[in-house]
Amino acid sequence: MKRLVVFFLCMLASMNAVAQKDFGGAVRFDRTVYDFGKVNIKDGAVSCSFKVTNIGNEKLNILAATTTCSCTKVQWTKEDIAPGDGGVVEVSYSNDEGPYPFDKPIMVYLSCLERPVVLHIKGISYKGKK
After folding, report:
1. CB 3.0-4.6 Å disulfide test: which of 16, 39, 76, 123 passes with 62?
2. Is 118 helix (H, G, I), strand (E, B) or coil?
C-alpha cells in the first residue's frame, strides 16, 4: 500500500513539472509541449509556435534557441521584449525521417534565467495513404 501511495505522489509531482509555464517570475510560455498527433510523412514538414510573455519588470531577450537534430529548425523573436509584451518561438519539424513516434526538445535561452527552458514537440509520423 505504501508503494502505491508513493507512486501516485510521484506521478502528481511530475504532472506539475510538465504543466509549468511560468519561469523565474519573469517569463511565461503559453505551453511547453506541442503535440502534432499523427502526421503522415507524405504531408511534409509541420510547424508550430510557442508564445512568450514577459511577466517581469525588466526587458527580456531570447538569446538563442537550439535543437538536438537537423530535422528541427527554430526561429525566435530577436528584439527586446518589454514588460507585458510578447514574442514567439517558431519550430518546424521536417517529418522525413521515417515512420515512428518523435519527441524533439528545443532549448530556449533567456536573458532573465540561468538555465534554458526546454520546450518539446512530439507526435507520431506514419507512412500511409492520404
Report:
1. 76
2. strand
CA–CA distances in Å: residue 49 to residues 21, 75, 91, 100, 128 = 15, 10, 6, 22, 27
Which residues does residue 70 pair with via DSSP β-bridges, in sequence order?
none
Rounded Cα distance between 102 and 81, Å, is 31
3: part of which helix (H) or strand (E)? helix 2-19
Residue pLDDT tens, the chain, 130 long: 555 444 444 444 444 444 579 999 999 999 999 999 999 999 999 999 999 999 999 999 999 999 999 999 999 999 999 999 999 999 999 998 889 999 999 999 999 999 999 999 999 999 976 5
Domains of the chain are 22-126 (2.60.40.10)
> In 3-state terms, what secondary structure has residue 100?
coil
Using CA of residue 60, residue 66, residue 67, residue 68, what is the dihedral sign?
negative
Q: What is the pTM of this model?
A: 0.81
